Amino acid sequence: MGLDTAGNHTFVNPAAAKMLGYSPEELIGQPSHATWHYSHLDDSDYSEHNCPIYSTLTNRRTFSGEEWFIHKDGSFFPVKYNSSPIIEEGECLGVVLSFSDISEKKQAEEKIIHLAYYDSLTNLPNRVLLMDRLSQLLTIRSDHQQSALVLINIDRFKNINNARGQTFGNILLQATATLLLKLVRDGDTLARMAADEFALLLPNLGSQAEVCGRDAHIVAEKILTHMEQPIIINNEKISITASIGISLFNKKIKGGTDEILRRAATALHRVKDTGGNQCSFFETDMSEIVEQRFLIEKELHEAIANDELRLFLQPQVDSKLQLFGFESLVRWQHPERGLISPGIFIPIAEESDLIIELGEWVLQKALSLSAKGDMAGHPFRLSVNLSPRHFRKKNFIPWLKKIFNSTGADPNHLILEVTESLLIDNINEIIAKMHELSSMGIHFSIDDFGTGYSSLAYLKRLPIHELKIDKSFIQDAPLNTSDAALVETILSVAKHMGLNVVAEGVETEEQASFLKQRAKVIYQGYLFGKPEPAGVWFKHWFDDDFT
Questions:
Q1: CA–CA separation, 81 vs 543, rounded Å?
Q2: Which fold, 118-282?
Q3: pTM above the 0.70 mark?
Q4: Contact residues for 339 (Cβ-Cβ < 8 A; gap 6+)
Q5: For residues 40 and 54, what is the distance between their CA atoms, to the nearest angstrom?
Q6: Angle at 115 between CA 113 and CA 118, to 5 degrees
Q7: C-alpha distances in Å from residue 322, one per residue of 132, 278, 326, 544
Q8: Is-contact 398 429, C-beta < 8 A?
Q9: pLDDT digit string (tens) for 266-298?
Q10: Is residue 337 within 8 Å of 292, Cβ to Cβ?
Q11: CATH number of the domain at 314-329+351-534, please?
Q12: Does domain 2-106 correspond to CATH entry 3.40.47.10?
């Protein structure tokens, strides 16, 4: 193939034209960029760039290399080329270009690379590629970004392999790989390390070790659950289990990739030594914490279905010690561990959609109780804590209206306690929802006021009826000037906005006296009554148990 100094084809032999999908006549006079794909250039004008043809013309010497040519059908194919100058009487008249198709060579190279980095049986990344990605992860991640390496080993695989043969074992490994791939998220790496051992790299778990440990544990439990499902091989149903070792790590880990792998392997061996079919973290303390949290979340889900939750009430009284209302509180009566503190299970529920199920249970029970009070001639005001996640659900208002219709409860007797975190996102949508509920007669209270967002600009736009002072301010207010100033500020804001104030956590006469001297407030705390089952307080205040 010949090109002139402008880069246009001057002659093309039939073999070259055929390789490009043209006839020689079609290419004569056409520029080189019609057939030559400059992979490193954006501009097709070769003369302004350091491309092989231009280099041959300007340097008057032969250049060799590899590039991509463009077939007439628009596809690319790799070639090996020689670009030599045509010089007559000291003048460079053009270029002679010879080339050969190296597609097969490239395919062979790609196959070699694939064999080097991928497992031939499962087509998953192999140990080499996993360790390379692990190394890159330690380089690019921030110091506190948590990741996890999960090692997965099929229990008693050697016995299966010996009993059914290597072909059967290979099919089982392929089926296991297919199963595990269904559980992998975008960005995760699933690899086959060796024989019956797989590895899962979870690179994006966040910055809080405890939450990341929980997430890694959930992934491991999903793997264990899915691997218990029977696999059909040669019309034979086989069930397997797995042992899983988990190592949490961040960029600060000493020992790098080898240490991460060692820790995961140590945790894996610990599981196999105890019989398999479970998972374990390398860090003993972390393992125990995550195991406990996972168990609580699992059992709490069952507790809602098994009617193990109990509705407790704590009274709220005015300055004359007359009943103002109750706050609804949930307790968990575990069949084996007894009454579990909400401080243990509420934070765990808040990290998942369980908080929504929990909130629905409380609202259902509270409104049913309120309706019974009305029917018994003992109407009372009832406060219910509402999770921001629950409030933001699109069907929350229709659902709540349905509960009112089914229970017959009076919306005017319900106060929904929301935290300031509710106001951070989609404030206009939140305000619209609150106004719709307020028009039904429902009241709103800002719980733990002063500990969160505290934007007075938004507060004045909300249909708020009450501010609730967090107990952390109340406890030291009589003696701590800073806490006293905060309480006095909240009381002043409430007075000017015409809002009720509920002071929670009032436990001493000194705290009650401090508040009474400064404003008219509603008291809630152990000084006036601790949380008890509804029937206990109804007998106390109404001399009637209508639960």
A1: 100
A2: Alpha-Beta Plaits (3.30.70)
A3: no
A4: 331, 332, 333
A5: 14
A6: 100
A7: 70, 56, 12, 17
A8: no
A9: 899 889 878 889 999 987 565 566 667 778 888
A10: no
A11: 3.20.20.450
A12: no
